[in-house]
Amino acid sequence: QQxxxxxxxxxxxxxxxxxxxxxxxxxxxxxxxxxxQQFPGKGPALLIAIRPDVSEKKExxxxxxxxxxxxxxxxxxxDSQPGDSATYFCAASPKTSYDKVxxxxxxxxxxxx
Amino acid sequence: xAGVTQSPTHLIKTRGQHVTLRCSPIxxxxxxxxxxxxxxxxxxxxxxxxxxxxxxxxxxxxxxSARQFPNYSSELNVNALLLGDSALYLCASGGMRAGSxxxxxxxxxLTVT
Lengths: 113, 113
What we know:
The complex is a heterodimer of chains A (113) and B (113). Chain A has strands at 4-7, 10-14, 19-25, 30-38, 45-50, 56-59, 62-67, 72-77, 86-94, 102-103, 107-112. By secondary structure, chain A is mainly beta.
């Protein structure tokens, strides 16, 4: 049973374009929704995170949109660059245990020149 | 500041053997979590320790065990290794509150033959 669903599995975007990754969850106990970026040979690193009482959060070229009623959230990467090529994981954790993070299956992003 | 450090970086074991993986958290972090990342998938929560006590356990068999030491470093032990235990094992520290991110190490790549 996949608690956090993520799509697409892979994504190819041209340099300067917008990358969009979508996620959905079922468990209403989830209270914190981080996105992680992982490069080959490295551990995941926190990119940006949002709480369900906020509908949108922007940090530089990265924006999270959150729809609490639909239990969906998405990551938009504006002006995508080749250096953004990595695997992105959406995730969720419950209020009772913020360090028990449930990860989605990941999206492999390739930004081509 | 040193990040989360894990050792060894790579390990090859035979089915039925035992393995011990080690983790040192970021200085000042009292919480350590362990995750298993099978190739092509998102990390899965195994254990969380805080102040030397187990605070959470994921859906893993009893062959998996862990402990945390007075200096907050941690060990993950896996007995009777199976081929399916081949994965990247990630250690993370922090993350006890919303907005306090998990900091991951670069993991130990375990191959079981």
